[in-house]
Design goal:
CATH class: Alpha Beta
Largest sheet: 7 strands, parallel
Bound molecules: NADP nicotinamide-adenine-dinucleotide phosphate
Order of helices and strands: EEEHEHEHEHEHEHHEHH
Low-confidence stretches: 1-8, 279-283
Oligomer: single chain
Mean pLDDT: 92
């Protein structure tokens, strides 16, 4: 069984856990599923693209014959589909020990010209679905006296970002919510960890770019591989760490950001947005 050792610092054992990963059809979520597959008893993979989830299910069960892998096609922006997912878990008596709230998306460009539907989707997936799924699953974790929640946020959540306003604000919500939840759940045996990565090569930038624009990847030297992001995070969860910022440069950068007055961060964000707008004009 999935157990927490009851030391001063609660260590999380991922062996034989039952995990649910949202956004498992690509990028970071798919890598979480791959790295958990050798350790977990069962996985529930959630996203919209059934064909990607089915391929991943086949890959994981071929490699780990004793592993049970379910997949559910769910649009997390649709509350009714989220409710159906929770009912399906109940009907099938699947108790989740580890919830990886990973699904997310962004929109790169000025807020004034943004698509309201896309803004709604960002808020619905990045904030509402993460909150609702956590709310649905924690009572049973508390009842059992153990469980773990991993909320995938972003370093973007530490600062206002002109040209990425709704996304950065949605991740600021995830950061604040996760820290408060961790404090609330401290005596229950349920652990909460927040992952705040910088840029990683996944489909994220392609999804976030506006029609006709090129994806923005940022400088290569601050990128961390998706494999390292996930392995560092699983190690950090096992050490009961509250916050994970993969990569030394991102760690240093975010430490500086957190010491910098908001007025300076805002000014830097404004200058960077102006520079990006200039680059757009040149394209
Ligand atoms: N890549 C980066 O640079 C970076 C940096 C910091 C933080 N992050 C965060 O990391 C998380 C994962 O991003 P990623 O880089 O792996 O991006 P990705 O490759 O684009 O993957 C995003 C995942 O979210 C799922 N998703 C999006 N909208 C959904 C919806 N409405 N319903 C259900 N699933 C949905 C996608 O599945 P379907 O399309 O199949 O539904 C996909 O599996 C996000 O929360 C992102 O904000 C990424």
């Amino acid at each position: 069984m999935f157990r927490f050792a009851q030391h001063d610092k609660r260590a999380i054992k991922l062996e034989n856990c039952s995990a649910l990963v949202t956004g498992a059809s690509a990028g970071i979520g798919r890598e979480f599923a791959r790295q958990l597959a050798g350790r977990a008893n069962s996985l529930v993979l959630v996203a919209r693209r059934a064909e990607c989830l089915e391929l991943l299910q086949t890959e994981l069960t071929n490699r780990n014959p004793r592993l049970t892998v379910h997949y559910r096609t769910v649009d997390l922006a649709e509350p009714s589909q989220l409710e159906s997912l929770v009912s399906w878990l109940d009907q099938n008596k699947i108790n989740i020990d580890l919830l990886v709230n990973n699904a997310g998306l962004g929109d790169l460009g000025p807020f004034a010209t943004s698509d309201p539907g896309r803004n709604h989707q960002i808020m619905a997936v990045n904030m509402v679905a993460l909150t609702s799924l956590t709310h649905a699953l924690i009572p049973k974790m508390i009842g059992r006296g153990h469980g773990a929640i991993l909320n995938v946020s972003a370093s973007a959540g530490f600062l206002p970002i002109a040209g990425f306003a709704v996304y950065a604000a949605s991740k600021a919500y995830v950061n604040s919510f996760s820290q408060a939840l961790r404090a609330e759940l401290r005596s229950t045996g349920v652990s909460v960890t927040t992952l705040c990565p910088g840029p990683i090569h996944t489909e994220f930038q392609e999804v976030a770019k506006r029609p006709g624009n090129q994806p923005e990847h940022g400088p290569e030297f601050i990128h961390v591989s998706v494999e390292k992001v996930v392995s560092d995070t699983l190690t950090a969860m096992e050490a009961d760490r509250a916050l994970v910022i993969p990569g030394l440069l991102m760690k240093i950068g975010m430490a500086l950001v957190r010491l910098t007055p908001l007025s300076i961060l805002r000014r830097a964000s404004q200058l960077s947005a102006k520079r990006n707008a200039g680059t757009e004009t040149l394209r």
